[in-house]
Protein: 5-methyltetrahydropteroyltriglutamate--homocysteine methyltransferase
Amino acid sequence: MLETVKTSNLGYPRLGEKREWKQLLESYWRHEIDDHQFEIAAKRLRLLNLQKQLAFGVTHIPVADNSNYDHVLDTMAAFNLVPERFGSYDRPLHLSEYFAVARGTDKNVPADMTKWFNTNYHYTVPEFDHTQPRLLDNRWLRYWQEAKDALHIDGKPVILGPVSLIKLGKINGTYVTEADHINTLLDQLLPIYGEVFQQLAAAGVSWVQLDEPTLVQLTHANEVLPYQKMAAYLHRVAPTINIVLQTYFDAIDPFEAVMKMPVQAIGLDFVHDHGENLKHIQQIGFPKDKILAAGIIDGHNIWASDLREKVQLTKTLQGYAPKIWLQPSNSLLHVPITTKYEAACDDSIYHALAFADEKIKELGIIAKACNQQDVTKALTKNQQALNHLKLAPFRHHPNVKARVNALDESQFKRKSDYHTRQKIQAAALKLPFLPTTTIGSFPQSATVRAKRAAWRQGKLTDQAYDTFIASEIKRWIRLQERIGLDVLVHGEFERTDMVEYFGQKLGGFLATKNGWVQSYGSRAVRPPVIYGDVYYQEPITVDKSVYAQSLTDKPVKGMITAPLTIINWSFVRDDITRATVQNQIALALREEVLNLEQAGIKIIQVDEPALREGLPLKVRHWQAYLDAAVAAFKITTTGVQDQTQIHTHMCYSDFDDIIDTITNLDADVISIETARSRGEIIAAFEQTHYTKQIGLGVYDIHATRVPSISEIEANIQRGLQVINPKQFWVNPDCGLKTRTEEQVIIALTRLQAARDRVVLKHQEA
Ligand SMILES: CN1c2c(nc(N)[nH]c2=O)NC[C@@H]1CNc1ccc(C(=O)N[C@@H](CCC(=O)N[C@@H](CCC(=O)N[C@@H](CCC(=O)O)C(=O)O)C(=O)O)C(=O)O)cc1
Ligand SMILES: N[C@@H](CCS)C(=O)O
Ligand SMILES: [Zn+2]
Structure:
């Protein structure tokens, strides 16, 4: 006898429909509101999110999935695990102490952040160097109680599991991978998780969602041991709590071992699993005593589901697991909140979109269909919407498809090898020893944003807006000249965002009005939607670069975003392969690169910061991804003459495992982040005997604190110990758009002075 199909959610976006949460955080940071006002407003937003899910009929509503900055930081703060420099506590952290860890202070650099699996969300990296874990704050109980008291919701607290917490963190600057380290830390953490669970049990909590996303990265059954130990412990100390062991972003390889764990439900991703979770269930079966929490709706993309197909999938799953919860494949943190602000876009796209709220509604329809309720109308409407998009003529451009199919070897190769190019470029550019440059963007000041807002609202003409952007470019060219930088940039003032901007300019993209997704803390991005074949409409960046170059004798870098970063930070159509979409983007950008070159731009930077984060979670899928990434980068960049210098830039990455890919990109110069990761990255380049030019980030742009000349000099010297000075460039870690003008001028002046000191010492030696 089949049980009623229930619905569940894994996490709801935090931003608020109109980014109210962002406004709230930032007004608190600006001291416009006090703690009390902050708490009242934050509670209102939390309850609003819960109320919505209640209204949509979700059976198992997540609680404590909210955060004041980041959920990993919340876990660290609750367990006294913040980095040592921020102190050790025996009471819950005050809001200002919590934000100090996240954002840094005058004295302390903030805790390190990195990408959350293969998403564009950043989490705070735990540091386990001096851990004295203890429970400071059972936030899971607090938020469960809040939902119960205010809305009578018996919520499902979401807690990041201890093994994943450990593996997402570092000891002595290195990610925790050794079994011994994992076990030692687990022994320290389990009693604390036990306390949390016991308190939840005492309060009457029925279900806890225990997220262990690292389970999808395992390859062998013996790696499941710490997870088993953890589940057995929690079951022993809090037997009345039902645990849903939640995985996402891929399939579980050691399937049988995980299925044996003493939990009451297992959450599996049936969207990003390459079909493997279903295959495992069909071959191995699903434990009869457990609930299958089936992630059947794509929580990482924004397309409406094919509901008939999902009903069919659910019925198939019911053949193996009679007790089912239907849920998104992962937390809805990674998609915008509602499509209702997008109604102005083409109807055939609009009706085929599903953001968080629409996804939750989809779950309700599928559940009803499986529970024998009549949803014919909803299913028909869904089929019509999908068909309209599929057949929309503006989606298909046969000539684009033909160009991708006709790609040949000549479009993947520079004319000459690096050493030949290097000589030609050196003669043409005549750059000094240890050239200085920046990564591209300068402050997106309140004035820049206000002018853009006025222009968008029609209060400023196109011409007035262009004139304003030109005046900013000119002002910053002069500033860069005054500081003495060697290679200049135009500053990217015209761009809301390095991906969204290209989405606004290329054919086949839709730029959303309100499709905000949290990137880190209060910061958000609006990923554009790739709905059709991508094509080049007209020059995108050429006029800005040419104008900037006309103002100075120093070289100005052209600045574009590379295909993998565009695709990884967009929502991508899912009816053709990603490799095809990537190559379409690459062919369009190739035209832009050639136009820049033809217009006299001698250095062109092709930013690829998201290449590393897009790596599939399973190593066996890496090579195909990396090969396709290299191909797209080469299509973009290899059309130019030898004397045109191609730069690329990557940040927020661990480069060790993609160093061969970096070499294969064949860029003449790469600038990378290093200031924050304290030099681990440099070793990777040393070991590979990297022969091309490298700009090491010697100023951490993510910290509000500006380093001294000596600190920057030390960073340069550290790099020079392992990298040949002839290959070395001096630059910040990343773009400067989030910094203030004052900070940037001081920082770059010091960077230039540090470079001059090093040059002097080098000449004296
Ligand atoms: C390098 N990074 C990037 C990532 N992903 C990207 N897609 N782009 C990136 O650059 N991932 C990794 C990192 C993440 N880094 C950041 C850094 C900074 C931000 C950020 O500051 N985001 C802003 C929003 C930026 C933006 O688009 N601003 C618009 C203004 C939009 C707006 O607020 N409009 C208002 C009205 C106008 C107004 O009052 O200003 C409205 O629509 O209501 C612009 O420049 O015009 C943020 O505030 O969060 C993100 C990721
Ligand atoms: N050119 C971009 C790169 C960011 S990763 C910038 O400077 O903002
Ligand atoms: Zn960057």
About this structure: The pocket of LYWDKB7T (ligand 1) is lined by residues 120, 444, 449, 452-453, 496-499, 519, 523-525, 569, 609, 738 (CB under 6 Å). DSSP finds 27 helices and 23 strands in the chain. The two ends are 84 Å apart (CA to CA).
